[in-house]
Structures are given as structure tokens and as C-alpha cells.
Amino acid sequence: MSHGKMEELRGRLDSVNLQLLELLSERARIAQEIGQEKEKQGVPKYDPVREKKMLDELVALNKGPFDNETIRHLFKQVFQASLKLQQTDHVKHLLVSRKRHKEDTVVSVGDIAVGGGKPILVAGPCSVESYEQVRKTAAVLKASGISVMRGGAFKPRTSPYDFQGLGVEGLKILKEVASEFGLKTISEIVDPAHVELACEYIDVIQIGARNMQNFELLKAAGDVRTPVLLKRGLAATIDEFLHSAEYIVSRGNTQVMLIERGIRTYERATRNTLDISAVPILKLESHLPVLVDVTHSTGRKDIMGPCARAALAAGADGVMVEVHPDPATALSDAAQQMNFDEFRRFLEEVGLQA
Ligand code: PEP
Ligand code: MN
Fold it and tell me: Residue 296: CB within 6 Å of ligand 1?
């Protein structure tokens, strides 16, 4: 082949490359628009039936020289790249993302603002055990200037033989004591069927670490307008955590708080590993308030103070701790709950009073 002929063919090839590039870009833009439409309609991005139809039509019209297998392969690559583009667009636009909503979300727990600049402290027993136990705790919280009390009525326990909580009876105790002391309450709900009922008794629905990806529970919490405290899963990535929050917010409940409670690692010096870096990352990636549970993360009363201070220094909007009138006799988490003296010392150390 003469040099001139080669040059001429290469020139034609370059020009076809350019045309292909323009067509691919045009195709990608159309795919993005389709992605946005699918987003609005809430239908999945990947449609295998439509993809098969497109491939079959292309193969039927193929006149060579590429064989059908090659045509299928090449177009599948194009389809996959388009799908990836649609999915990237989708991630960029999660409702919980700061890219979507620049300002901090402030969650209103009655007249208490969470995420509004002043950090809050959530304290109370691991489990609601009796009216007296909750009442004694509430009195100490009130005297310390704490306004939000926690207490588990439905307990997700590792062993079915362990105390499972008082159920609705526990929610009733929380409500009665809270109204006597003017406190707000947080309690974990484990069954989607209990979400509506819980709203009558408590001010914040907690979704526990074990249920972070219980999608039916997330949807049920998204369908009410009571604030939700969503705990990070035992081994959940930050991305999975944010997607779980998205389940709630996408159903219309924008009042969601995230709480880091430690993740499972090889380390045994603490109950879980408190991922303090999750705090600034969540604050950067999301506009939702971020809290840190220093009780379930560390499982150690001797380091809860420094860990709470670290959480606040990292930008947390609040801290959660467990307090019990007599931890030694507690029906759950006996080793890690503070007694009232320890709690008062903790408050002094952290400087979180009203
Ligand atoms: C709790 O806060 O009562 C609890 C069970 O914590 P976690 O879901 O983080 O284990
Ligand atoms: Mn506990």
C-alpha cells in the first residue's frame, strides 16, 4: 500500500472516530435525561427487557463485517457505561446529600433544635425496666439540665433468652415520666407495625444498629412525621448509612438524625470501634444532624468523657450516653451504664449541661 493511500485511510478513520465520539456523547446525554425521568417516576435505572430488545434489533440489522457476538459485546459496553452515568447522577442527588441541600437540617424535637449549633445530650437507661427506675433517672436528668431522655422498650438482644424489653408498657412509662418532668423521649422501635403507635408515646423513633438496613422499618419511619434517630449498622459503610437515611427522607420524613455508635473491628479493647472520622465525613456529605453514642461504641465508662469531647470537637451535634440508677442490677448493658455520680462527673468533664 502506498504511503498516500495509508494516510488517506487513517484520515477517514480519524473522522469516523470523531463522529463516533459525538454520537456516543449524544447518546450519553439522552441516557442521562432518561435517567432523570426514571428518577421522577421512581422506576429502576436498569431495564434488562429493554436492553435485550435493543441488542436483538441491532443484531438483526447487522450486515457485518463484525459478527453478532462482537456487536452484542460492543453495545453492551455502551449500555453499561450509560447505566453507570445514570447511577452516578442519582448518587450525586441523594436527598440527604449536601449537594442537594446546602444548609444544615435542624431537627425539631418539640422546642429542642438538634443541628442548630448547640449540641444536645441524650441520656437515660439502656432499657425501661420500671416506672421507678425511669422516674429516678428523669429527676437526675432534669436537675442536670438535660432535656432528652432515652430508654429502650423494645430491645433487640443477641440472645432470645435475654430481657426483651417491656414493649408498649415501656413506652407508656416513658410518656408518663416525661410529661411529669417536661422531658422529650427517644425509644427504639423494631417492628414497622409499631411505628404509628409509637408516635403517640415518644418524641423520637430510634432505629437501632441491627435494623439500619431493615428497609420495611425505614419505609414505615419515613411515612410518619415524628423525628427519627438512625443508628449506624454494626458493620455498615458510611455510604450504606446514608442510603438508609435516604429511605426515610425519600418517603417525606425529613426529620432524620444520624448517630455513629461504633463499628465492629478486630479491636477488643473497646466494645466497638468508635469511628470518629465518620462525624466530619457525615457532616460534609450530608446536611443531617450527626450524634455520637459513646456508650455502645466504647462500652467503657472510663473513656466516655474523652470520647464525647472528641465527638464534639469533630463537629457532632450531640452525644448519647446510658445512665441507670443502679447499673449493677440493670437488665441490659449492666457493665457500661453510668450511675448518677459517674454521670455528673461525665457532664462536668464534657461541659454539656444546659
Ligand atoms: C440502644 O441504643 O439501645 C442500642 C441497642 O444501641 P445499638 O442499636 O447502637 O446497638
Ligand atoms: Mn444499651
Answer: yes
Map out the domains of the chain as residue ranges. Answer: 3-93, 107-350
> Does the 3-93 domain belong in CATH 1.10.3430.10?
no
Question: Which amino acid makes up residue 121?
Answer: L
CB distance 126 to ligand 1 below 6 Å: yes
**Measured in angstroms, how far is the CA atom of residue 234 from the centroid of ligand 1?**
10
107-350 is a CATH 1.10.3720.10 domain: no
Q: pLDDT of 276-332, one tens digit each? A: 999 999 999 999 999 999 999 999 999 999 999 999 999 999 999 999 999 999 999
* Cα 67 to middle of ligand 2, angstroms: 63
Provide DSSP, 22-78.
Answer: HHHHHHHHHHHHHHHHHHHHT--S--HHHHHHHHHHHHHH--SSS-HHHHHHHHHHH
Residue 208 near ligand 1, beta carbon < 6 Å? yes
Instruction: Quote the ligand 1 centre to 241 CA distance (angstroms).
Output: 15
